[in-house]
Amino acid sequence: MDGDRVEIDGGIMEGGGQILRVSTALSCLLGLPLRVRRIRAGRSQPGLRPQHLSGLEIIRDLCEGKLEGGEIGSTEITFTPGKIKGGTHIADTKTAGSVCLLMQVAMPCVLFAASPSELHLKGGTNAEMAPQIDYTVMVFKPIVEKFNFTFNCDIKKRGYYPQGGGEVVVQMSPVKELSPINLTERGTVTKIYGRAFVAGALPIKLAKDMSAAAVRCIRKEIRDLYINIQPVREPDDQAFGTGSGIIIVAETSTGCLLAGSSLGKRGKNSDKVGIEAAEILLRNLKHGGTVDDSLQDQLIIFMALAKGVSRVKSGPITLHTQTAIHFAEQLTKAKFTVTKWEEEDPSKDTYIIECQGMGMINPNL
């Protein structure tokens, strides 16, 4: 069997957990046995971290596959997928490893399961180096559902660095196939809203400060819109540990959603957290794309699986996106092209990501 394994170099390009997520999800979907070498080779702690191992384990469980080399610190794994089944699956990072990244790896697979799925994902809901759960619900969900599927995401408990302890439950039904998307019209910004949160031992004043600082920063560029960033204190029974952060979303006349977010940490001024999120949002609004930097790479696997041509207008192509495209093309028959968008304003750094999807069909439906 080993002769037929697809060989993946986990140390190239972005060189992180994303390579594992994209390649194992596609391996599971396409029934391709996989070997990934040099996992996170260039990172300060190479090899699998709890986050990545939990992702591999949920994929293994989803399809009754076989995983070898699945331990913390391992730099090589082999994975032999089985048949994707629905039902209830649990993944627990036992750390502040991101539940959103667990969702990223599992979601494409359960779309092509034989029956509905319920994923219980445990870890950090608002963690560094990953989308916050608020981003997943407020931005990722409404946009990714344009591929013609829906899912429900119930935040049972929020969890923060370093302990985690959060839990979300994702419910979704399988589909026959995914429709392509066409996100090429940005439109004008019609609304800006968001939430600044504190949890645990932190006072609500910090949330108010984050919100006010973010509004002041956005006001310098956008003067004529009401900006509604709610300061909230997470109820104690719905949050584990202490954390703070902010997410700000801009909605456009064509239904695009772009965001900026930031997390608080010890010694970081709350004004700075608010300003950081506002600056990310403003930067995402400047490039004229229909998706922000965080969403860009998350759409690639769905574009690759969809039936037909998807087109997305974006800002500068991130290394994460280039990496996702590279491995999607290596493993599927999808073909991507990225071209500079010169039509409106050549000075803007805008691109069109186009994909002729492979047209994955759910064999179970």
Automatic annotation (TrEMBL):
Domain RNA 3'-terminal phosphate cyclase: 13-338
UniProt-annotated catalytic positions: H320
One GO CC annotation: nucleus
GO biological process: one example: RNA processing
Signal peptide (residue range): none
Binding site for ATP: Q104
UniProt-listed SUPFAM superfamilies: EPT/RTPC-like, RNA 3'-terminal phosphate cyclase, RPTC, insert domain
Pfam families referenced in this protein's UniProt entry, alphabetically: RTC, RTC_insert
Domain RNA 3'-terminal phosphate cyclase insert: start-end pairs: 184-285
Reactions that this protein is recorded to catalyse: a 3'-end 3'-phospho-ribonucleotide-RNA + ATP = a 3'-end 2',3'-cyclophospho-ribonucleotide-RNA + AMP + diphosphate
InterPro entries: RNA3'-term_phos_cycl_insert, RNA3'_phos_cyclase_dom, RNA3'_phos_cyclase_dom_sf, RNA3'_term_phos_cyc, RNA3'_term_phos_cyc_type_1, RNA3'_term_phos_cycl-like_CS, RNA3'P_cycl/enolpyr_Trfase_a/b, RPTC_insert
EC number: 6.5.1.4
Molecular functions (GO terms): ATP binding; RNA-3'-phosphate cyclase activity
Top-level taxon of origin: Eukaryota
Alphabetic keyword roster: ATP-binding, Ligase, Nucleotide-binding
Similarity-based family: Belongs to the RNA 3'-terminal cyclase family. Type 1 subfamily.
Function summary: Catalyzes the conversion of 3'-phosphate to a 2',3'-cyclic phosphodiester at the end of RNA. The mechanism of action of the enzyme occurs in 3 steps: (A) adenylation of the enzyme by ATP; (B) transfer of adenylate to an RNA-N3'P to produce RNA-N3'PP5'A; (C) and attack of the adjacent 2'-hydroxyl on the 3'-phosphorus in the diester linkage to produce the cyclic end product. Likely functions in some aspects of cellular RNA processing. Function plays an important role in regulating axon regeneration by inhibiting central nervous system (CNS) axon regeneration following optic nerve injury.
Protein's name in the database: RNA 3'-terminal phosphate cyclase
